[in-house]
Structures are given as C-alpha cells and as structure tokens.
From TrEMBL:
Keyword Membrane attributed: yes
Keywords, alphabetical: Membrane, Transmembrane, Transmembrane helix
Annotated protein name in UniProt: Membrane protein, putative
Keyword Transmembrane attributed: yes
TM annotation in the entry: 12-29, 41-61, 68-86, 98-120, 197-217, 223-241
Amino acid sequence: MTNAIAKKPRLLLYVILASLILATNYILYRTPLFGPVPEGAVIGSLLDLLIILPLLTYFMIIHKRYSLKYMGIVIFAGFAAAYLIVPQQHLSDYPFLPYLLIVSEGAFLLFELYIAYTVITRLPKLLKEYKTLASRNSFFLFNIRKAVETSLPDNTAARILVTEFSMFHYSLFSWKKKVQIDHGMAFTYHKKNSVNAVYIMVIHAIAIESVGLHYFLHSWNPIVSYVLLILNIYGILFMLAELQATRLTPFLLTDDYLLLQTGFSSSMHLPLSNIKEIKRYEGPEKFSRKEQKELFDARVPDLVQEKPMFEILLHEPQNVHFIYGLKRKATRIVLNVDEPDIFYHELKRSLPE
C-alpha cells in the first residue's frame, strides 16, 4: 500500500496533510505537550475537521474522479473525528453540532431530490425507452442504464440515481421475479459456489452489529446512533440487492454482444467484435496490482475463491460499469460459470471470423 501511495503524488500529499490535521488536533487535546487548551481552540479544531478536511478531500481525492455523493460520508467522518478527538467538556459549549450534522446530511438529501427532479422531468421519454428494452429481457439494471444513456446523455446525476433505483428494485421489489430472456443464451454463475451464503453472512453480521452499536451509541449521542443505524440499513439493502441481482442477471450471450453483470455493482456490455480470444485460464490464483488495473474480474465472492475458469482478451479497452456511475477500462476479463463447457463452445462459435 505504501508503494501505491508513493506512486501518486496527489494522494501522498493528501495523506500527509490529513494526518497533520488529525495529529495536531489530537496532540492539542489528548497530551499535556502544550499545557492547558487555549480559549477558542475548539473553534479552530472544528474548522479543521468539519470544513478544511472535507474540502481537502474533495479537491484532492473526489473532484473529477468520484461521485459528489461521497462527500456525505466525508462530512460524517469529520463529525466523528471531532467527537473522538475533542473532549466532551469542550464540545458541550457548542450544542449546535448535532444539528449541524443534520443540516449537512439534509443538504445531500436535497441534492438527491434535485437528481430525482431532473429525471422526473424527462420521465416519459425514459419510461418509453425502458419498456422497449424490458420487453426483450428482465435485466433491470442493464435496461434502466441504457434508457438513461439514451434519454439523459452525459447526465452524471441521473447515473447516480440509477444505482439507487436498482438497489431498491432488487432488494425490495424483485423477490417474486424470474429471469426472462427472449433473445440470447443465459449462463448462471452462482449455483455452484457459496456466494449466497457469503451475502447472507454479511447481512446477518450487519444486522447484529446494528443492534449492539445502536444501543451503545444511543446512550452517548442519539443522533450519531441513528445516523449509523440508517447507514447499516442501507448496507443491508445493498447486500440484499447484490443477492437478488446475482440470481436474476445471468451472463447473457446474443448474436452481437456478451453482457457480464455480477450482482448489481459491476457489469460490462461487451460487443463480440471486440473479443480477441477466449481461452481456459492457466495463470496464477491471485493477480498483481498492475494486472488488476486492466482486469475485469467477473467472479462473485466465494468462501473459498477458486481460480477463474476462462480468460477473455479484448482488441480494445472496454468500459466496466460500477455503482454511482463510476467506470474504468479493462483489456482482460476472467470469469466462472456453472456450465463451463457449453459457455466456452457457444461463445467460441459466436465470435466473428
């Protein structure tokens, strides 16, 4: 990890500056090095942790790289740092802090409402496009993403909202749905591994942790306990969405493309014309950091992760789609399927000469 940071000057500078901010504030309150805490020091610390540190994170990490939505997590982390570093007797002089946290999170709620408004104003066109795509198959995420790209091109806010729609669809409204495909061949990838057990274990752990942590934090600060409870509920919905999307979105092979969607958090729409070669994977079990940068690992989590069955090489880098509109390029794909021989021969036969 140290080598990875050293190769990225911006990240290295951010780590140094953030560490200095946290360390100086901790030393000020938690060690006798500077003697009594001077009057007004709390204001300076709050500015550091609630304004300077989030702004630093935005301009050096998030800006032009990740969704603005991550700022909600950054702001919450700043509040948590303030409560952990500044002694309670000093914070008691500023009772507005919990309300400031509510206002901050409320601002991001308004941002999401703005996103929803943007989509709603173009909803008729989007729904028409979605219904056309949905009549061909039941791949909700693929269809809604295509509809958004057609109706709201280059709209980052809409791409963020796609993740929210998909998560709630899969976690709450898809339990009675079945896979429907009118064109192409489907290949499942979850029946011969323990991916379902992995997600159930994670959901179970989050649920137990939520109860215990909520009870513990509620006696200290009810607002923080409720914020963490909401985040844990969000985490459970996310895991349920992954579980359901894995069941409902097998790999799809058509005459023109191969759709690889693992759960709902990563996917690739791959034209067959961009496939250079498919072969049995014979490499090492683990990939180096350099390999991972250009690799789409289309395997699902497993209690014991087996080696990939196949490796697909591409002529040109292809986009891998992640949650909240994030994307990156990949030139190689590794994957496992439940029926490897059939998948291999059908994909081989479908490739252009």
